[in-house]
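BUG: 3D viewer hangs when loading the predicted structure for this chain

Environment: internal workstation, default settings.
Expected: structure renders.
Actual: progress bar stalls at 90%.

Input used:
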Amino acid sequence: MTYEEFNEFKIIEDKNNPFCTLYETEDGDRFYIEPAFYTQMLGFKEHRKEQYSLIVQAIKDSVKRNHRVIFTAEYDYPQTLVDEKEGYIFLEIFDITDPLKIFVEDKSRGSDYGD
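Structure tokens produced before the viewer hung:
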């Protein structure tokens, strides 16, 4: 899957992980975007449209700073598995948005039945 926010980067085919997109920058840095992480990005795009470009730039800056990144929806259950010696780090959407002080409050709650 390609994501328009990262069109300037080369896509690398990873046969061991066909459902997550692996990108490579001109400098040779690599990063995965897991589908659930991208869904979270779209949630921020919907609720914080005016700040979305800051989020995308922070993702790119994080790749430049860390060189090997897996953007996952959940640390405990990443979809992308890599050999530890490859040097990848895992980041969640809040690792990107919290330092920017961009928040979306989750007001979902269970049913009112039984109250």
